[in-house]
Amino acid sequence: MSRALERVSFLGFDVFGTVVDWRTSVARIAEPFLARYAVQVDPLQFASDWRGCYQPSMETIRSGQREYVTLDVLNLENLVTVLAAYGADPDRIPAQELDELTRAWERLDPWPDSVEGLSRLKRRFAIGALSNGHIAGMLNLARYAGLPWDVIGGAELSRSYKPQAATYQRTIAAVGRLPQETAMVAAHNDDLLAARENGMRTVFVCRPTEYGSGQTKDLAPARDWDIVVSSLTEAADALGC
Amino acid sequence: MSRALERVSFLGFDVFGTVVDWRTSVARIAEPFLARYAVQVDPLQFASDWRGCYQPSMETIRSGQREYVTLDVLNLENLVTVLAAYGADPDRIPAQELDELTRAWERLDPWPDSVEGLSRLKRRFAIGALSNGHIAGMLNLARYAGLPWDVIGGAELSRSYKPQAATYQRTIAAVGRLPQETAMVAAHNDDLLAARENGMRTVFVCRPTEYGSGQTKDLAPARDWDIVVSSLTEAADALGC
Predict the structure, then answer these.
(1) By residue range, what is the domain housing residue B75?
(2) What is the pTM assigned to this prediction?
(3) Are residues B122 and B78 in the same domain?
(4) A93: helix, coil or strand?
(5) Are residues A149 and A186 in the same domain?
(6) Which residue of B has its CA nearest to A176?
């Protein structure tokens, strides 16, 4: 077993991309909606485009231009933006249907190894979501996907968005650990970089198809992360769980 | 099945007394400590006396005299107070031992029906701690006692203490429900009264030995609570789980 995580008793997980496959799930859920409103776009492209608004929309909050709002609020605004970009008129779509489609982010399928991996890791470590998702979204997603979190940490506790330091620090404090007693598990190098800057140990999970077959980012670890694996079951193996 | 909870999809639980038996657990854990420092008190009496400081210590925060601190901070202060009241000198006890004993509140045994009851209720409802305990304490207690929470709500989210309205309201908002879509499950009439005032449905769980055989409070429902049961498995029966 790797000794880098010897003192660690809490694992915080990035969720979108690391634990669940948002792209194919959003595409599947959106497909009938797109057909109903004759929106001319491939559902997988639609999922990527919607997700593409994610970082810029959080950036308005990180920069202080805008007060914190939860991720469902941003996702709904971003949905309206992408629909308009395809030439659809979001004002002609009932608000309830837009809300319903936004809840696609609470019905994302886990990667095939996620539930088993988390269940095994949970035997030895306290495990929690450390995501930019809001608490209700993480709760509903966990129930949908069977993610056995001990606790839901992340953005809403600190009213900040990763990679801001406050998001990591507030969750570390909430779970009552020292930074070095925690590790961040993520498929994204920038997330791990910020986690390490805040004293956490790091576990990189390679998810080379998060963005589909043409993915160019996060195909490999960009730093000497403490653990590098290809799945959460492999993480459990590496950590002796 | 009772229809009063038909629209409810989230159950918030009081924990100390309702889900776990703090009195006999604290007594058991404290016994060797009390013997080691020759503190002349029956361990069960000690547990009750320590718990007796609980409401007054939170009251300083509810009233605004003092800024919010987490329950472990209050429990440690109260431990020093009760030890001094028995004639012990807390300054002669290593701080680490006082901290360790304070963590007794994270190692409380569930009532015999709690784990099965929660597991059954979880099939139909999202379930969460809605306690005055802090997040880390609830997390560690859940792992010790096997409490399968979907989410940890309660005092720390709002930096307030039940029965303040903010504690209920913030958890209701965090789980993304309307008040009438939530229910409070508690062994304490005053907790349910405040929950009802904040729009929650109410489940009274009779725990007549929480304070031992001489208990005088909360032996029966003081109002027409929506559901009245004697255990969490009975609650699961009543709710068709």
Answers:
(1) 22-106
(2) 0.97
(3) no
(4) coil
(5) yes
(6) B136
